[in-house]
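Predict the holo structure. Ligand: fe (ii) ion.
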Amino acid sequence: MTQEIQRVSPYFSDPAPANALIDDAGGHFRVHARAYTDQAIFDLEQKQVFSRIWVYMGHESEFGKAGDFKTTHIGLQPVIVSRGEDGQIHVMLNRCVHRGAAVCRELRGNTPHFICPYHAWKYSVDGRLQAISGENDPSGYSASFDKPEGLRKVPRVDHYRGFYFASLNPDVVPLADYLGPTARQLIDRKLAQAPEGKITVQGRPFVAVYKGNWKFQSENIIDGYHFMYTHRSFVQLQAKYGDTTGDFGVHKGGSAAEMSKNRNLGNVTGGVHGHGINQKPVVGYDDFFTGAFAGHFSALRDRYGDEELRWVLGMGAGCIFPTFGLIHNQIRVWRPIGPALTEVTIYPYSLNGAPEEFNQGMLRSHERFYGPAGYGAVDDVEVFALNQQGLSASDDAWLIMERGMEKEKRLDSGEIEGLPSSETVHRAFWRQWRRLMNSN
Ligand code: FES
Ligand SMILES: [Fe+2]
């Protein structure tokens, strides 16, 4: 955080800057528009949120062999994630130690080393500085030159069942504790859909940028309230042409009338670290055992039993605080660029051990709803931009997030469970945001 930002931000001198932006007194829950629009709040989030907790980096299937890498971000900070010759996953800042250029400009690939595009300093795939071009030239470096070791390592890297996270904070809580029961259940039930208990990221990701704050996506991916309204054109298509995606589990909702009826099934859970999940027992359970993939589902039933399998197949969506989501057969990652600019990356995946035809069907179904020409994802992105537009209308807008407050219950784990279209998960998100923004 630069001196300049400290000087211009009124929030740096406030020990509890988020208190003014969340009003939960008297059984209400409201969030102020400035939490989404204010540049100083955005800057403070980089320090207080993104630099202190675990941020998702990638899935093990993206780094199958030594030299596999991708570039991504922790908040605004560019990083390289790679599998080294040692077989380990490394995360380092994508910043040359010479004069600061990003040494890697590809989104992903495989390489024996990185060579900085500016003056060609060479780094191993795990970030060690291997060679300085022209090091021994007459105009090179003196004997007292303090040769750097390499790219700056991000201090903590860990994974949960193949999902890799990193943290800039060396003292961050252990990853499994950070995920807690809510986020672990999200990952466990998603992986339980695969006969081998693993997934494989497929193809090239789809990247979109929207003109809105990053927190709109965090809220939306677990929002059980909007579907029938935001995605009304999709619901109307379903009503007219029927359910053409059902066998593959993406938006298997039957007719529009059935979708409407089922919208109150299941629950949402808000985790103690701000994570949220939105799930329900799968609709049309018996049909899974008569269709083309009856053998696949029967094997899962033998393993999990009817009750758990209903929930495994019905695990809808989750947000792992702050910017990582799983929804249907998709990993979704979003990153802040500015208070009103966010990039979303969507990685569809297949289920290891499932029939090839089933996986292909799931991917086609994914494309129909979430792809660049899909029915659904564009609706949400349009709403995020409308959110931002609306919030620019006033500097004193309070957004209402108290749906379902009366009906929620606290679980033994400290998590809070609510009814499917309640804003329980949003409140969990914002409470964690407030804790981080306020604490030292
Ligand atoms: S900035 Fe990388 S080699 Fe000069
Ligand atoms: Fe949506």
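Residues 96, 98-101, 116, 118-119, 121 surround FE2/S2 (inorganic) cluster (ligand 1) (CB under 6 Å). The two ends are 14 Å apart (CA to CA).
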